[in-house]
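Entry 14. Ran structure prediction on the chain below.
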Amino acid sequence: MNLHQLLLARAENDQPIHVALIGAGKFGSMFLAQARHTPGIHILGIADLSVDRARAAMRATGWPEEQTSATSPAKALATGATFLTDDAGLLINAGGLEVIIEATGDPEAGIRHALAAIDRGRHIIMVNVEADVLAGPLLADKARQAGIVYSMAYGDQPALICEQVDWARTAGFEVVAAGKGTLYMPEFHALTPETVWGHYGISPERAKESGLNPKMFNSFLDGTKSGIEMAAVANATGLTPAPGGLTFPPCPADELAATLIPEVDGGTLHHKGQVEVISSRGRDGKDLIGDLRWGVYVTFEAPSDYVERCFADYGLITDASGRYSALWRPYHLIGLELGISVAKAAIKNEATGTARDFIADVVATAKRDLAAGEILDGEGGYTVWGRLMVAGDSLTIGAVPIGLAHGLTLKTSVKKGAVVQWSDVDDVTDSMAGNSVAFAVRREMEMAMAPIASHPGQTQTAS
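Output, structure tokens:
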């Protein structure tokens, strides 16, 4: 790995990578904290709906006040300072810009920004997994046609999982399963922004004082974020979900090789080549010792008796047969690692994971019995959570993607646990097509890219 040396060369030649950050929230701030210590990277500008928030993010992550002195993108390019604005389009069109980091977390905004970046020939680091799952395969295809990189964000779990899958395949192993850890209990699917804080050990008052977003934090516990991240992994690697979606089996790290293998071999998987999230807590409510709550993993199979013996010779943890083993990483550093994606895209023209095919989807699922006339409030809200589903099945039943399940009015009642379908909501085709770029691009993807993995069990070969 020689990225650091290549970055040093860019710095020494006074040719740093000029980067624009869109969204100065937690992920973006974590990137800023490390970017100031990384040679060869220049934060040309930050766009946020609140310029004061962007300035506060710079201040909180140790940047000197004079760094935000640039009064235009051109001045920032000439002086090495940073331009702050609430106009993302102004930054995307700035001269000299190479890489855009989309970190808003809003699928509508993310897709708009990605299309603008593709039009201007800017590499895109899509921190916004919500946008990626809603229409990433099409956006990535458009980016490839434009000769630019559309990349997952290194440091976020999907990119790290893709790296592990690529490692295993490049070494000649069949990937049996890949995924991440999380804290999960079945009742979490019903959590709301009002009830979530107790599970984090934070009072609602403290959360408000700290500026924490209850819907965002709720999406991590109610299962939505896990579904979104595993859909992104599936679309990038060709691994497929189980027919019923994620099952969240409780599993400590040292039992991965015995648990994340097919049921027929004593494990929990529906099939080989599956994405799955493991829980750090047992169904009895007790936290596991040696859990993988913050980490990622891959399980793989020995292709021969010789390799199986090698597993034993070198102390790999395996299942009882000795055929299956696992590799895991206990932590992910989120935005602190994002510079790797920036350097890979700008210097090597490579992505740290990218959508390839429309394999998996995440669909709105009722958190409780919903009545006709209620309005859906989207990811992390009071009405629906996001369930992972095979893309072909999602389109067949006309499921509403979680990324579009906001502001829709139900015309029929929907039972708790049922998937919300387009037939359940008021006809919004004309209005959304005219007002929502995300809706239009999603429909374009559905028309242009037939789902590939309608029948889980057949491992795809995309990488």
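Residues 455-463 have pLDDT under 50 and may be disordered. Will compare against last week's run tomorrow.
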